[in-house]
Specification:
The chain is mostly beta strands. Helix content is 1%, strand content 50%. The chain is built from two helices and 53 strands. A seven-stranded antiparallel β-sheet has the order 1-16-15-18-17-20-19, with no helix packed on it. It is globular, with a radius of gyration of 32 Å.
C-alpha cells in the first residue's frame, strides 16, 4: 500500500522581520465544463494573510478534450520568487491539449487578482483542432468514471488513443481526472514530462487493466477542545489502496460539560461498503456520545466528510439539578478536575478510562462527569465495543489521579569499601493508573561491586519490597531489590544499598585461580586472583540488561562454585529489567550481527516520556562494518517526532557513543543519540530513554511576546497553523525542512517553531546525524550573521575508551546523584 503525503512547494526564504506580510486572494477549484462556456469567470475568493516574505500566486490550467475542458484554479500564498505572467503550452494537440498560466506578485495586497480564463482567450488554436482525420477514439473527461464513453472522430494528425488517469494535487485540489481522447503520439505522457506547475503537482497512470485501486483520504486526529470551537473542519493526507479495498471514515464526539473529545480516522479498508450512519450512543443529560461511520467504493476520495456539522448540533438549555460530579475529559491526568453541578435528570457520577485502539488511534481517555441511567455501572457507550475500525473498551476500576514517583537510572562500578552507597533521584508525574517502581541489583566480584538502579513509573501490579539472593558465592554473588507501590506520591523511596548489603564474611583462600574483570568494554589481559575456598570454576560471560531505561552489556570474569553459564540461577527478569547471559561470544572470525529496523513516530510529549524503540529483526554485517543505532528527537512544544535507525554502519566506522543537542529552550528541542559498536547485537537500546536520561531538564521559561506557528510533519509539509506564544527569550520564528537519508530511512521533516538568538540554521554546520546524512533548508541566510557566534549544536561524545565514565555521566544527567 502506497502512502502519499500532501505535497506543497518547498522553498528557502530569508528572515525579514521588518517587512509587513501580504494579504492574498485565497481559493481553489477544479471543474469539467463545456468549451462553449469559455471564458469562465469566478468570484468570491477568500483572503489570507501570508507569512513574511511570501507572495501571492495565480495559477490556471486548462485541459482541452474535444468539446470539454477541465479547469483548475489555485490562488493563495507562495514562497516562490516574483514571476511575471507566464503561459506554457504543455501539449498543443492535435486532440488533447494542455495550457497553464502562472504569476507570482508582491507589489500589493490582493495582487493575485485574475478572475477569468479570458487572459488565455487570445492564445492560438491547438494544431489541427478543426480538421477531422480517420482515427476514432473514446472521448471522456470526468472526475468519476469513463465507462461507455462515446467515440469521436479525431483531428487530423492524431495517431493514438489516450486512456489514463491524471492525478492533480495542490492547495485545496485533490482530483483523479479520468481522461480518454486523441493524441499524436503513444505512451503515457499527456503532460510531456511536466510534474508540477507552481503548487500544483501532477502524475499520470495509464495502466488501467483490471480492477483499479482507489485513492482515499487518509489520516487520524484526536483532540480535546472547548464546545465553543464547534464547528470544526479538517483536511487530511491521502493514500492509494490495495486493489479491492474501499475508503472508510470514522468520527466520534464525546461531549462533557463545556468540553468535547473528537477522534477522527480515515483510510483504506477491506470492510464491506456501509452507508453513512450516525449513531447516538448516549444522549445525556450530562455526557453525550455520537459517532459517524462510512465505507465506500463508488469513487476516489469518497470518504470526504470534512466537518463536524453532520454530527453535532447545540444542545438545548438544561436546568441544573442537585447532583455534583467531578468533570474531566483528558488523555493525560484528571488530578486537577473540578466538581460541577450536573444538569437536571443526571442520576450518577461516571469515572472511567475509555481505551480506543484501531485505525491509527491509540488513546486512553480519562472521563469523569454526569450521566443518567437506571443503575450505576461502567457502561458509558451502552454496550458498544467497536466504532468503525476502532475497538473501544471501558475500565472504571482505575484511579484517575496520577501519582508522582522518584525517577532516574544509575549504573556504576565501585570498590566494595565504599558501600553502603546513597543517592538522590529526580521525579516524574506518571500516567493515570501507573504505580512507582524501585529496582536495584548488586553484583559482587572480588573487591568490586556493580550497581544497577532504575526508578520510575510502571503499569505492573503492586509488589511489596522483595530482596532476592540470586547467587550467594563463594566468588561472584548477585542480589536484587524490587518494589511496586501506589499508596502515596514518591513511595519508591529506596535511597541506599543498606537493605541489600552487609559486609561479607572473611573467607579463606582456595586453590583455584581465575581472571577477575568487571567492564562494559573488553576483559583482555584481566589480572588473575586467588579464589575463595569453595570456588571450583572460572566464570566468563556477558550479562545483558535491557529495560527500565537500563541498557548494559557487562563483561564478567570471576570465581564460581559450579560450571555453566548460569550466573543468575535462571533469573530472566528483575523488575522492569530483562536479563540474559552469553558465555560464548562470537569469535573474531564470526560475522557480526546487529539489530535492524527503522522507526518514525509523531505525537506529543516525546521530550518527557520515553518511546519504545525495538527492532523487528537482525542482519549480518559486511566486513569492515559495525553496529549502529541513531535516534533523532524534534520537539517544538505542541508536537514531537522521533526518527530512529538500527543496523550495520558504513564501512570504516569506529566505536563511539554521542549525544548532540542542536537546539534547546527557550526555542525548540532538537537532539540526537548515536551509538556505533562492534560486539554481537550491541545496538540494543529498547527505548528513547537512552537520549532522555542524558538531556538536561531546564525549567520552562514563562511566556514571551513572540508568536510562531508550531508544527512537525514527517513525509509531508507543514501547513499554515495558528500561532502559539513562544517562551520568553525566543525572538524569532523558524521554518524549514531537514532531508534525512541513510540507515534505511529517506524522508523530509518539515518544522516550524520558536528559536532563540543567534539566528542560525537549526543543525548548525552539521551534515550528518549518526547514520543519517542531513540537509537543511530554512529561513536562515548566511548574510543574516551579525557576529561569529558559536554553533548551536552542543555535543557530548563518549568515545570507546571513555565508556568507563558513561555510567557516572548518565546518572548525573538522569537526576540521580550516586554518592550524595
Amino acid at each position: 500500500m502506497n502512502s502519499i503525503p500532501v505535497l506543497t512547494l518547498l522553498g528557502v526564504t530569508a528572515l525579514l522581520p521588518c517587512v509587513p506580510a501580504l494579504t492574498c486572494q485565497k481559493s481553489s477549484a477544479q471543474a469539467v465544463r463545456n468549451v462553449a462556456e469559455l471564458p469562465l469567470r469566478w468570484w468570491g475568493a477568500g483572503e489570507k494573510t501570508c507569512e513574511v516574505s511570501e507572495g501571492c500566486q495565480d495559477l490556471i490550467m486548462l485541459l482541452y478534450n474535444g468539446p470539454k475542458v477541465n479547469l483548475v484554479i489555485i490562488k493563495g500564498c507562495t514562497e516562490v520568487e516574483d514571476q511575471e505572467p507566464k503561459v506554457i503550452w504543455l501539449r498543443t494537440g492535435p486532440g488533447l491539449s494542455v495550457v497553464s498560466y502562472t504569476r507570482v506578485c508582491r507589489h500589493g495586497d490582493l495582487c493575485n487578482d485574475v478572475n477569468s480564463t479570458k487572459i488565455l482567450e487570445e492564445l492560438p488554436t491547438p494544431t489541427g483542432a478543426s480538421v477531422p482525420g480517420s482515427l476514432r477514439c473514446p472521448l471522456c473527461l470526468s472526475n468519476d468514471s469513463c465507462e461507455n464513453a462515446p467515440e469521436q472522430v479525431c483531428p487530423v494528425g492524431s495517431t493514438h488513443c489516450y486512456d489514463g488517469v491524471l492525478r492533480l494535487r495542490g492547495d485545496g485540489i485533490r482530483t483523479n481526472l479520468k481522461v480518454q481522447g486523441c493524441m499524436a503520439q503513444p505512451d503515457c505522457n499527456l503532460l510531456n514530462g511536466t510534474q508540477a506547475i507552481g503548487t500544483l503537482y501532477m502524475s499520470e497512470n495509464c495502466d488501467l487493466i483490471g480492477p483499479q485501486a482507489l485513492d482515499c483520504n487518509s489520516g487520524s486526529l484526536e483532540t480535546v477542545r472547548n464546545v465553543s470551537d464547534l464547528h470544526l473542519s479538517w483536511t487530511t493526507g491521502w493514500q492509494t489502496c490495495e486493489a479491492g479495498e474501499g475508503c472508510y471514515e470514522t468520527v466520534m464526539l464525546i461531549q462533557n460539560g463545556h468540553e468535547f473529545h473528537m477522534v477522527l480516522t480515515k483510510g483504506c479498508t477491506r470492510d464491506m461498503n456501509k452507508k453513512a450512519r450516525l449513531t447516538r450512543h448516549r444522549t445525556g443529560p450530562g455526557i453525550s456520545i455520537v459517532s459517524y461511520v462510512h465505507v465506500c467504493r463508488d469513487r476516489d476520495f469518497c470518504n470526504d466528510l470534512s466537518t463536524t456539522d453532520p454530527l453535532w448540533t447545540p444542545p438545548p438549555d438544561t436546568e441544573l439539578g442537585t447532583l455534583r460530579c467531578r468533570h474531566c475529559l483528558s488523555t493525560g491526568s484528571c488530578v486537577s478536575a473540578s466538581e460541577l453541578v450536573c444538569p437536571a435528570g443526571s442520576t450518577h457520577c461516571y469515572s472511567g478510562v475509555l481505551s480506543l485502539r484501531g485505525g491509527g488511534v491509540i488513546s486512553d481517555l480519562k472521563v469523569q462527569g454526569c450521566i443518567s441511567q437506571s443503575q450505576p455501572g461502567c457502561n458509558l457507550l451502552n454496550g458498544t465495543q467497536t466504532i468503525g475500525p476502532v475497538d473501544v473498551r471501558e475500565d472504571c476500576g482505575l484511579q484517575l489521579d496520577a501519582l508522582k514517583c522518584q525517577h532516574g537510572t544509575l549504573k556504576t562500578i565501585q570498590d566494595i569499601s565504599k558501600l553502603p552507597l546513597q543517592w538522590t533521584a529526580g521525579q516524574k508525574i506518571c500516567n493515570v493508573g501507573e504505580g512507582c517502581q524501585d529496582t536495584l541489583m548488586l553484583i559482587e566480584n572480588g573487591e568490586q561491586v556493580n550497581l544497577v538502579l532504575t526508578k520510575g513509573c510502571t503499569t505492573a501490579k503492586d509488589q511489596e519490597a522483595k530482596v532476592t539472593e540470586h547467587r550467594t558465592g563463594p566468588g561472584l554473588s548477585v542480589t536484587s531489590y524490587t518494589r511496586v507501590c501506589r499508596k502515596k506520591d514518591f513511595c519508591n523511596d529506596l535511597s541506599t544499598t543498606a537493605p541489600l548489603w552487609a559486609p561479607p564474611p572473611v573467607t579463606a583462600p582456595g586453590t583455584t585461580r581465575c581472571p577477575l574483570c568487571f567492564s562494559e568494554q573488553a576483559c583482555e589481559n584481566a589480572p588473575e586472583q586467588v579464589c575463595p575456598a569453595g570456588s571450583t570454576h572460572c566464570y566468563s560471560g556477558v550479562l545483558s540488561l535491557r529495560g527500565g531505561g537500563i541498557i548494559s552489556d557487562l563483561k564478567v570474569q570471576g570465581c564460581m562454585s559450579q560450571p555453566g553459564c548460569n550466573l543468575l540461577n535462571g533469573t530472566q527478569t528483575i523488575g522492569p529489567v530483562d536479563v540474559s547471559e552469553r558465555c560464548s561470544p562470537p569469535s573474531e572470525t564470526t560475522e557480526l550481527s546487529c539489530y535492524r529496523g527503522v522507526m518514525f513516530e509523531l505525537g506529543n510529549g516525546f521530550a518527557e516520556e520515553p518511546v519504545k524503540w525495538t527492532a523487528p529483526g537482525s542482519q549480518v554485517c559486511a566486513p569492515d562494518e559495525i553496529c549502529q543505532e541513531t535516534l533523532l528527537l524534534i520537539d517544538v512544544g505542541q508536537k514531537s517526532a522521533f526518527l530512529g535507525s538500527k543496523g550495520c554502519s558504513s564501512p570504516g566506522a569506529q566505536d563511539n557513543i554521542g549525544v548532540s543537542i542542536f537546539s534547546r529552550l527557550p526555542g525548540m528541542l532538537v537532539a540526537s543519540y548515536t551509538k556505533f559498536c562492534s560486539s554481537h547485537l550491541c545496538n540494543g537500546a529498547d527505548s528513547s530513554s537512552v537520549l532522555l536520561s542524558i538531556l538536561p531538564r531546564p525549567d520552562v521559561p514563562p511566556p514571551g511576546d513572540v508568536q510562531c506557528p508550531m508544527c512537525v510533519e514527517l513525509f509531508g509539509s507543514c501547513k499554515s497553523t495558528d500561532s502559539v506564544t513562544c517562551p520568553r527569550g525566543a525572538t524569532h520564528c523558524y521554518k524549514g525542512d531537514i532531508a534525512l537519508q541513510g540507515g534505511g530511512l529517506t524522508t523530509r521533516v518539515s518544522i516550524q517553531g520558536c528559536m532563540a538568538p543567534p539566528i542560525k540554521p537549526l543543525l548548525g554546520d552539521s551534515k550528518t546525524i549518526g547514520i543519517f546524512s542531513a540537509e537543511e533548508s530554512s529561513n536562515y541566510r548566511h548574510e543574516d550573521d551579525v557576529t561569529s557566534a558559536p554553533s548551536l549544536a552542543w555535543t557530548l561524545r563518549l568515545s570507546a575508551w571513555m565508556l568507563g565514565l558513561s555510567a557516572l555521566l548518565s546518572s548525573l544527567y538522569a537526576g540521580i546523584c550516586p554518592l550524595c
